Amino acid sequence: MGENKAFIQIDGTPIIERTYLLFKTLFSEIMIVTNETESFMNFEAKIHRDLIPDRGALGGLYSGIFYASSLYAFCVACDMPFLKGPVIQYILNQIEDHDVIVPKTKDGLQPLHAIYSKNCLAPILTTMEQGKYKITDFYPRVNVKTIEENEFRSLDPTMESFINVNTPTELLLMKTHTTSYENEK
Predict the structure, then answer these.
(1) Helix, strand or coil for residue 96?
(2) 164: Cβ–Cβ under 8 A, 6 or more apart, which residues?
(3) Chain segment 136-165, per-residue pLDDT in tens
(4) 101: Cβ–Cβ under 8 A, 6 or more apart, which residues?
């Protein structure tokens, strides 16, 4: 993208701020895992660097779970501007005794919109030591609960909770989506 995706503005608000404001209504602890800590000092959140640098999203996930003060942590990507509180709450209500609670949409598993327990730390570390850095690579080592799309679709009929921005083209489509959504109101 050529810029930090967390600070891309959607409707005049950076994605990270949209996420932060939502999380303030849902969680008692908010954490940001980043190697650009200075950029996030304006947020009342715990800010940590990756414990194991250069391991991509899996390394960031490991750090977030490690630093979390509770047994479970809801983990989300920094480039998802349309997160929905009711969807997150539904996922939180599914914890039970699972190590991972991950939604599955028609596009597949959504590992950066999921809940992870501290029981995932050793399996993630083992996976990274094997040179594997895809988040789902450690799933066979833990107790995973998959939540199917039909279980939560009524809470987000357009499934926009799972939209993320990775390319300039996706950003343009996202801004078009937002404009269309605003015109429908």
Answers:
(1) coil
(2) 77, 79, 80, 112, 170
(3) 999 999 999 999 999 999 999 989 899 887
(4) 91, 94, 95, 114, 115, 144, 145, 147
Q: Say what the pTM is.
A: 0.88
Sign, CA dihedral 129-133-135-137, equals negative
Q: Where are the domains of the chain?
A: 5-184
* Phi–psi pair at 77, nearest 5 degrees: -75, 160
The residue written with tokens 């499934």 in the block is: 159
What SS3 state is found at 113? Answer: strand
Quick one: DSSP state of residue 148? E
State in words which class domain 5-184 has: alpha beta
